[in-house]
Amino acid sequence: MYEVELKLRADHESLRERLDDVGANWVEHRRQVDTYYDAPHRSFADTDEALRIRREEPADGDDVTKLTYKGPLIEAASKTREEHETAVNDDEALQGVLAGLGFEPAAVVEKDRTYFDFDEYTVVLDAVDGLGEFVEIEREVPEAEVEAAREEAIGLLERLGLDPDEQIRTSYLGLLLAADD
Amino acid sequence: MYEVELKLRADHESLRERLDDVGANWVEHRRQVDTYYDAPHRSFADTDEALRIRREEPADGDDVTKLTYKGPLIEAASKTREEHETAVNDDEALQGVLAGLGFEPAAVVEKDRTYFDFDEYTVVLDAVDGLGEFVEIEREVPEAEVEAAREEAIGLLERLGLDPDEQIRTSYLGLLLAADD
Question: Which residues of A154-169 are buried (b: 16+ CB within 10 A; e: fewer)?
Fold first, then answer.
């Protein structure tokens, strides 16, 4: 499966009203702390890959740790990537595995994330520490459906009163690293 | 924590009687299928490390997938290594992460494994496909206790009627690769 994802800056207060107007459903809220790793054998900045440990703190329930690999862009306009993600039981052991293999923590991205269901898509409101407020609309589809899903996502953004031309293609990690410069 | 582990060839039928005699307790039985990976950036054969996905099939209960990294030997006599292991929820996603990073499956070791508790140690009876019957005695200890734990493990092997001098320091993977030559 491929992740189709579009991201924009958006004021959350007005966006929540529009989500309510169009009948999108609130799903859940989580605090996410993402640690991105550098590889020992190639530069992920050059290859456009990412390796991440995500710690999620749901409003209710136990913390969850996930390991995620994101491959290079396969379709630049929609930021479509091959992605593999699994929950892991032992955060500390996973850090030990990566350290043993020579992967090193490079940067941390922290945010409050709220999920809504909107048609077949997930709409995500992100308040990112140090960066501000964003919205993402995303969906996983088979490779053959990527282009159609991207067009549909653009239509949904317009229904939310957003301008798809203002799409941001840089990751939060990239925005934070740029802000550090 | 460091894993102290001693391994010998042993006939399981007679060993089960001795375990019963000394009061060791049967714990459980599992089928294990281990896939070992080659790294893209160094030769684990040269560095004496290992990266493994283990699929465990308990006699009762659901299959479990574990990711394990084993570092180089830190104490050759007892085969003591730094080890990091965590269960993961999605076997296929984990394979995707490793493939994306450039790690490739190199060899598979399959065995039937039976666990016994014996004092502070775990005694493991392994019937390895293509290799035969083995026993391992193992325990995790802090680094400062490694030498004392190794001495104690030798004493327990003698109580089981085994000769600690017959210790095998080659991994099942190494034995299988040697048998292939």
Answer: bebbeebebeeeebee
C-alpha to C-alpha distance for B41 and B55, rounded to whole angstroms: 25
Q: Mean pLDDT of successive 10-residue segments in chain A (181 residues)?
A: 90 96 94 96 92 90 93 71 93 97 96 95 97 96 91 95 93 86 63
Instruction: Look up residue A34 and give its amino acid.
Output: D
Quick: pLDDT tens for B50-73.
Answer: 999 999 988 778 899 999 999 998
Collapsing DSSP to helix, strand or coil, A115 comes out as: strand
ipTM of the complex: 0.78
CA distance to partner chain A, nearest, from residue B99 (Å): 10
* Cα–Cα distance for residue pair B54/B115, rounded to 1 Å: 16
First to last CA, chain A: 35
B94 to chain A, closest Cα gap in Å: 6
Instruction: Identify from A67, A86, A91 which residue to disrupt to test chain B contact, counting B C-beta atoms within 10 A and taking the largest count.
Output: A86
Q: How many CB atoms lie within 10 A of CB A179?
A: 9
Q: Annotated catalytic, B36?
A: yes
Q: Please spell the DSSP secondary structure of B93-159, one letter per residue.
A: HHHHHHHHHT-EEEEEEEEEEEEEEETTEEEEEEEETTTEEEEEEEEEE-GGGHHHHHHHHHHHHHH
- Report CB contact under 8 Å: A94, B41: no
Sorted by sequence, the CB contacts under 8 Å of residue A48 that are 6+ apart come out as A72, A73
**Nearest CA to A118 among A76, A79, A153?**
A153
Q: Do residue A96 and residue B90 have CB atoms under 8 angstroms apart?
A: no
Contact status of B82 with chain A (Cβ, < 8 Å): yes
**CB spacing of A84 vs B69 below 8 angstroms:** no
